[in-house]
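Consider today's protein:

***
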Amino acid sequence: MLFRIPLVVAYCMALAGCAAMQDTSTSVEAAAPRSPADPAILAVPAPAVPPGPAFIEERALHAYATGRWDVAEGYYLQLTRLQPREAGPWFELGNLYAEQGRLDAAERAYREALRRRDNARTLHNLGLVQVRLGVGALREAWERLPADDPTRQQTREFLRALLDAMAQ
């Protein structure tokens, strides 16, 4: 372990020396006038172009498919900003949230998708999310209501009917 410390120190010194040598050579070159045909001027990299929506969508789909939902969510949110009039990113975001059980967020995302484009698939998914939200609310109400409350029995009947309808 002790023999590694001098190696690390020597490596750091070598890197520091290289950086200093590079700075010196740049300052000498900077003093000399350059022609527009100088390869050093032509070698300057162009500014990076931000990735387009197609690239981001591909990344989002891949992240979703591999179960990296937090990454997929970030990409879909980025797409909603890049393509504010498109319904697709909102629809996919709704699917992502529904898959995770984040039903309130899924409902909001599907509604945003419907605001941009009336679509039967989006309406279908919104309905499923709303049914799941309703079942959850009814279950919670049933658990909280006192045993002698007549509403508790009605709630149980609604739940049974909903669950039977969903099973068909």
Observations:
- Residues 1-31 have pLDDT under 50 and may be disordered.
- The chain is about 75% helix and 0% strand.
- Helices lie at 4-31, 39-42, 53-65, 69-82, 88-100, 103-116, 120-144, 150-167.
